[in-house]
Design a protein that fits this description.
This protein is about 70% helix and about 0% strand. The protein is mainly α and about 210 residues long.
Length: about 210
């Protein structure tokens, strides 16, 4: 896949739903350790909904960016949890960042990921290093940008690097102490643990990569 058009966006929606369904139990387990244990249900519900509305979203949107923005709106309406709200903002702002283009190329994908992270940071008041999904998204965006400069015509390769960055961020994040939300209650006990939101962030980047590589 060299670029993401409307048809490819539909494939990504399906892959997001698939990965969240497959990893629902792990998301639930991780969230039960640091939160209220509902992240698996929230993520599965949000992306199953989007997958089911793909045809409707595709018909309404002029381009892939608007498809992602509409998906964000649907998540916001139907998965009103903290993570659901953050993801809704992320997809809406990221979609807006690349809207107006018939397809999202490698550079556009890097811009999408950066806008996604920035939107979540702005809404949630967190920053990189606070043991949140941002510790995954920002490395993914940076890796994607660097790869896009080297291989601008190979979207799958760019997303492979983004996934590497996300997975590295997840691993490094285990050594951090949570600063926000319910996990912050546990303070030092969170050091060495996996942030559930960060794991969900890796799954999102993985969905984009697997769709592009497939």
């Amino acid at each position: 896949m060299k670029e993401i058009g409307k048809a490819e966006t539909a494939v990504i929606f399906g892959k997001l739903s698939e990965l969240m369904r497959q990893n629902k139990d792990e998301l639930t387990r991780l969230d039960a350790e640091l939160g209220d244990g509902d992240l698996g249900m929230v993520m599965e519900k949000a992306f199953t909904l989007i997958d089911g509305k793909t045809a409707e979203i595709q018909a309404k949107a002029e381009d892939p960016g608007k498809m992602f923005a509409l998906a964000g709106m649907e998540i916001g309406k139907n998965a009103p949890s903290t993570m659901g709200t953050l993801l809704a903002s992320g997809f809406m702002k990221a979609g807006k960042a690349v809207s107006g283009e018939a397809a999202i190329n490698a550079a556009g994908m890097a811009a999408f990921l950066a806008a996604f992270a920035d939107a979540i940071a702005a809404l949630g008041g967190a920053r990189r290093g606070d043991k949140t999904v941002l510790d995954v998204l920002y490395p993914a965006a940076e890796a994607a940008r660097a790869a896009a400069e080297k291989t601008p015509g190979d979207l799958a390769a760019v997303l492979a690097k983004a996934l590497e960055g996300a997975e590295k961020g997840l691993e490094e994040g285990r050594g951090l102490q949570a600063q926000h939300g319910r996990p912050a209650i546990f303070r030092e006990k969170t050091i060495g643990m996996t942030d559930p939101g960060s794991f969900a962030g890796v799954l999102i980047v993985r969905a984009f990569y697997e769709a592009a590589a497939g």
